[in-house]
Amino acid sequence: MKQNVRVWDAPIRLFHWALPPLIGFMWYSGEQGGEWLLWHIRVGYVVATLLLFRLIWGLIGSQTARFTQFIRGPKAILAYMRGQLPEDQIPGHNPLGALMVMALLAALLFQVVSGMLSSDIDSYMYDGPLIHLVGSEWSEQITVWHKQGINYLLALIAVHVGAVLFYLWGKKTNLIRPMVTGIKPIDSDAELDRVEFIPPIIALVTLVVSAGAIYTLVTRL
User: Fold this and answer.
1) DSSP class of residue 87?
2) Residue range of the domain that includes 109
């Protein structure tokens, strides 16, 4: 029996759909260079704020957003791959999806941190805000890693999109609609436990705190 269960809160859905255009712009502006780097940095602060928000929300947020809820060990991953993990036990990310989430967050974190430590090696007009912490020589090396890192991030995104399409067309499981509506149909005859959600005002406060933290980091450190 299919049961419609609310699994994703608005903060997670907004975070998820905000990232593609932001990352796309970061890639484009980085490729263009020149004065585009000014906007590259500014939008980078937005990405950094959202990332910090997601990391905090992964600790204090709604049940399906918490890392402790969806990060599973090898046994659970193998059980899921063998079809032995009931769907009602994984209302949010499945064990394989959780690995992708963590890989994407790690790659995005690397890009944010390395970007803040990078230098504009062409004109030195649009250096990252924290290059004074590492010096010019290290900053130039980090810039190389930053430019390479976007390719790994884009590759992970391609794998993520490919997996979603595989579930949609191969397994007839729509993972897109729940991330839009927050509602997921779960096949179970048992009465399902309701997912615990944190009030939106807490998410808003968390976002404001995250923005303040990033502002303080880039202006005071």
Assistant:
1) G
2) 2-220
